[in-house]
Specification:
alpha+beta, two-stranded antiparallel sheet, 4 strands, RRM_dom, single chain
């Protein structure tokens, strides 16, 4: 079948295929043809409409965009308000001057309360626990070998061990 109505009259020919599902890759049964001239498009529509292609009659109509009346209306989204987030968005950023003033006020307050801060002397004078452990670890232990030998001797005194006469 000749789709050309004039020299190189059609600019674009788009077949539509199924993208997913059990029919993926198979044609959907319609196509779009874009012509350079409207006269060529009119000739194609009049001559091809109702023609047999294989065993089926084809219907040739003008493609038209979907009307706004038929488009699905987007649902209005419910407004979610989280108080913690709302405060951060609406509050104005504090300028540098007020930040500096706040820091200076806090420093003055800390100077006045200097007497209240006392370091626990008992913890600062003691050696750290890890050093105590390492000191004890380096110390030679003579009791370990004694315990080991006594455990070996204890094995022979068990009721299930047999002594040879």
């Amino acid at each position: 079948m000749d789709w050309q109505f004039g020299p190189k009259s059609h600019r674009k020919f788009d077949l539509i295929f199924h993208r997913t599902g059990p029919l993926a890759g198979q044609p959907r049964g319609y196509a779009f043809v874009t012509y350079m001239k409207s006269e060529d498009a009119l000739k194609a529509k009049e001559s091809l409409n109702g023609k047999l292609v294989g065993q089926r009659k084809i219907a040739v109509t003008w493609a038209h965009s979907a009307d706004e009346d038929y488009l699905p209306v987007p649902k209005p989204k419910p407004e979610i308000s989280i108080p913690a987030l709302a405060l951060s968005k609406d509050s104005k950023k504090t300028d540098r001057v007020s930040q500096i003033q706040a820091i200076e006020a806090k420093l003055k307050l800390m100077e006045q309360k200097k007497d209240e801060l006392k370091i626990n002397d008992s913890l600062s004078t003691k050696t750290p626990v890890i050093q105590q452990f390492q000191f004890n670890k380096e110390k030679p232990c003579g009791t370990t070998s004694k315990n080991f030998k006594s455990r070996i001797n204890d094995r022979h005194k068990k009721p299930y061990s047999k002594r040879k006469p």
